[in-house]
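Pilot study result, target chain (345 residues):
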Amino acid sequence: MRRPHWPSRLPIDPYIVLLIGTVGLAALLPAHGTGAHVASGASTAAIAFLFFLYGARLSTREAMDGLRHWRLHVTVLACTFVVFPLLGLAARGLVPLLLTQPLYQGLLFLTLVPSTIQSSIAFTSIARGNVPAAICAGSFSSLVGIVATPLLAAALLGNSGGGFSADSLVKIVLQLLVPFVAGQVLRRWIGAFVARHKKVLGLVDRGSILLVVYTAFSEGVTQGIWHQVSAVRLGALLAVEAVILAVMLLLTWYGARALGFGRGDRIAIQFAGSKKSLASGLPMTSVLFGAHASLAVLPLMLFHQMQLMVCAVIAKRRAHDPEATATPTGPTGTPRPTAGTGDRR
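Predicted structure:
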């Protein structure tokens, strides 16, 4: 029996360390008074700029090309915006036995945010899956999420989501949708500049999110957030998130097989359909939850690191699966069906 290959180390995302450090900074030195107003204004501007960059980066031509593989994209969108929210609603029965109401609201919101792009592509590539499909699926999910996430939050969280109201929808439009559309409109003039300075602008992205986290937790600290969450509750939250992730990983893999997708497509569906975007979710949390965002972001931060660690193991194992070398691929990276490729696995 061939010994399974395991990664030498699990990916402890350095950015998660920075996020945790930002939370610690907010706990020790929260913004007060005028500083809080300045941080809040800067955070609002940073969120708008983030989504402007998202719009400027998204290639409309590539997105339209991806429509040719519409069955795969519909499957990923259904996992992201239907199955995930249903699991979030099912977790309502754990309140107050395992989860407090604020933690549950954050958990439910976690299930509403779009999928990732970068990590879905990276893990699909490592596992020798359909990388072009993962690119399009992640892009579609992010695009749909700008509209779908606020609407789902309005329907499922209502006024319980830390004061979620029609005003929050207006904020979503002004802070997220309008900058995104502006980025798309201006892409023909600034797209090349954005592509050339991808690394620098990526640092701006991450710095902006750190500012959002600092502002949210500063508000939380002034309101006594650490008196609302115990170690036992955090442990329970981690356990619930582990169950949700496991369910989604199994469902995306075996469900895609039942739908007749080949190995490469199943890999793309599993990694794009089982993950949630920290980069999109954190700014939306700040806009939707306002002063209550500090507790709402905890589930998303924890889930993000968990999904990276688990998916890294899965991707490494898929890369060394005999099926990975036995399946030839077409010019677009989509595996061609061949006899004995093991799709029944």
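One observation from the pilot: Confidence is low (pLDDT under 50) at residues 1-8, 327-345. A full batch analysis is planned for the follow-on phase.
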